[in-house]
């Protein structure tokens, strides 16, 4: 039976793997989240087209991005119970990466709809201009390394908080007289 701590680590890893897709625009998204665009903007074909282009620019080279996920994915396979590193790598190489590659455009479309629902067409054009610049292209190229750093950092952060979080959760459960679920 996994400990509570070990159950949170895959969550941290999964969260960190989601971050590279938006890390370049987090500041922009957070700044505009308070004033979301009208829902109709997400349906505007021109805005969606620009959002799709921006998301594609942000991701950088798809093969590089997906290959950079191989090591973290192999680690996740091991956390899921595939203890042998070689087997985990084969699963990632032969199943996970081909599946992600085959459906990568679906991810870009989902992200584009999200961006178009939060950012204006003008914001997206400005972000696209940045990603077309030398600095933007370097940021896109650095995304795999940044994703790994975010994964490592998020995992370390969660691990550092786990003891305090567990203690506070236990304290709250006791204070409220809630019985812990013994079945899990």
Describe the structure.
This protein has ten helices and no strands. The chain is mainly alpha-helical. It has one domain (4-176). α6 (70-79) packs across α7 (85-102) and α9 (121-132) crosses α10 (134-176). The radius of gyration is 20 Å and the shape is extended. The model is unreliable at 1-38 (pLDDT under 50). InterPro entries: DUF2059 (IPR018637). Residues 106-164 form the DUF2059 domain.
Structural class: mainly alpha
Determine the fraction of residues in helical runs and give it as a percent range.
over 70%
What share of residues are in beta strands?
under 5%
Amino-to-carboxy terminus distance:
8 Å
Order of helices and strands: HHHHHHHHHH
Number of domains: 1
Tell me the total number of β-strands.
0
Shape type:
extended
Tell me the radius of gyration. 20 Å
Q: Spans of 5+ residues with little confidence (pLDDT < 50)?
A: 1-38
The total count of helices amounts to 10
Mean pLDDT: 78
């Amino acid at each position: 039976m996994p400990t509570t701590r070990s159950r949170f680590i895959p969550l941290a890893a999964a969260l960190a793997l989601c971050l590279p897709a938006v890390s370049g625009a987090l500041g922009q998204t957070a700044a505009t989240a308070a004033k979301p665009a009208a829902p109709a903007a997400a349906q505007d074909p021109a805005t969606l087209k620009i959002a799709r282009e921006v998301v594609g620019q942000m991701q950088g080279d798809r093969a590089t991005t997906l290959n950079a996920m191989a090591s973290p994915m192999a680690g996740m396979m091991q956390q899921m119970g595939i203890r042998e590193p070689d087997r985990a790598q084969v699963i990632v190489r032969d199943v996970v990466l081909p599946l992600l590659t085959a459906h990568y455009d679906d991810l870009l479309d989902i992200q584009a709809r999200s961006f178009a629902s939060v950012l204006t067409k003008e914001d997206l054009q400005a972000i696209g201009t940045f990603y077309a610049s030398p600095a933007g292209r370097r940021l896109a190229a650095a995304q795999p390394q940044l994703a790994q750093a975010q994964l490592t950092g998020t995992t370390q952060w969660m691990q550092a908080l786990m003891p305090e979080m567990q203690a506070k959760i236990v304290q709250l459960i006791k204070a409220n007289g809630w019985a812990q679920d013994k079945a899990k």
